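Task: sequence design from structure.
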């Protein structure tokens, strides 16, 4: 369970601040107050075999619902949390929650499922990230091989050596690793060769355009395979996209065509409906 952090360090507004800065600061103060409360929770989106549609695993996605009911998208609050130094607390909350969820799913008769968890650059930079990860796996008693950490390619461009080292340490603990949102960052293709990862995730943008132009998707699938990675397509929304991805040789997929991110009760219903 995440503990409230830096509660005493609220930010104050000043007259010369722009509206935008002010909105961000208000959001940050609310986020600090929300840390460790039930306003922050995780949902789970299935990842399926593209061929059969069967669930292979889940991805944990963080959600923040403010007391007024507003759902703040992670693309808005995660960068803010990173800048404010809150991300390691939020990150370990997600790691714990998702691994505990996986443990329950394994015990509920789904022993084959894996759990993918997004980790941010700030988390990887923490000097004790790896020992904390090892502790967490022991506490939640999940097999490391069932847990995958997702990092984005854009992080690699920032600090390639750190990224390389962390990916090696993560895999030495027995976890798997995925490169998320591939193709949207600005790192060169050769960066990928130096990163040891098990999966490559094609960014949703290339899946969205695949019916008009499949060239980038094809390139990412081929690149992944030539580096011995399994390729996952994000944001699969239509049967035609799934069909084209299968033709390209992409193995796995996630998207609204299969399932939306869900809370535990909805996930259990979805999994039960898939049972043969
Ligand atoms: P991501 O890891 O690439 O996650 C995929 C995003 O695509 C999710 O957005 C998911 O809800 C959305 N999505 C899935 N299928 C579809 C689809 O068929 N169509 C469309 N249009 N969207 C789809 P979400 O949950 O808003 O998360 C956005 C990003 O925030 C994530 O991108 C990830 O980078 C970050 N994030 C989320 N949770 C965490 C977390 O716990 N830790 C960290 N560090 N980052 C997180
Ligand atoms: Mg992800
Ligand atoms: Mg992604
Ligand atoms: Mg994405």
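Answer:
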């Amino acid at each position: 369970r995440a503990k409230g952090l830096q509660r005493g360090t609220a930010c104050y507004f000043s007259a010369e601040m722009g509206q935008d800065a002010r909105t961000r600061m208000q959001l940050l103060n609310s986020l600090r107050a929300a840390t460790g409360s039930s306003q922050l929770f995780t949902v789970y989106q299935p990842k399926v075999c593209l061929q059969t549609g069967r669930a292979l695993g889940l991805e944990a996605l963080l959600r923040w619902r403010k007391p007024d009911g507003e759902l703040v998208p992670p693309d808005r609050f995660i960068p803010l949390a990173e800048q404010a130094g809150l991300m390691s607390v939020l990150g370990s909350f997600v790691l714990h929650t998702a691994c505990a969820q996986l443990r329950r799913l394994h015990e509920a008769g789904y022993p084959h499922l894996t759990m993918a968890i997004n980790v941010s650059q700030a988390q990887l930079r923490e000097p004790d990230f790896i020992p904390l990860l090892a502790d967490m796996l022991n506490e939640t008693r999940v097999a490391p091989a069932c847990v995958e950490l997702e990092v984005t390619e854009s992080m690699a461009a920032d600090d390639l050596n750190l990224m390389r080292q962390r990916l090696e340490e993560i895999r030495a603990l027995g976890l798997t690793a995925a490169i998320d949102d591939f193709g949207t960052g600005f790192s060169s293709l050769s960066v990928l060769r130096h990163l040891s990862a098990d999966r490559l995730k094609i960014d949703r943008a290339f899946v969205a355009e695949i019916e008009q132009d499949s060239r980038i998707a094809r390139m990412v699938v081929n690149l992944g395979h030539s580096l011995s990675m399994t390729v996952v397509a994000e944001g699969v929304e239509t049967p035609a996209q799934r069909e084209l991805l299968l033709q390209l040789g992409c193995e796995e997929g996630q998207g609204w065509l299969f399932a939306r991110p869900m809370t535990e009760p909805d996930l259990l219903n979805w999994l039960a409906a898939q049972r043969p």
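Residues 180-181, 201, 234 surround magnesium ion (ligand 3) (CB under 6 Å).
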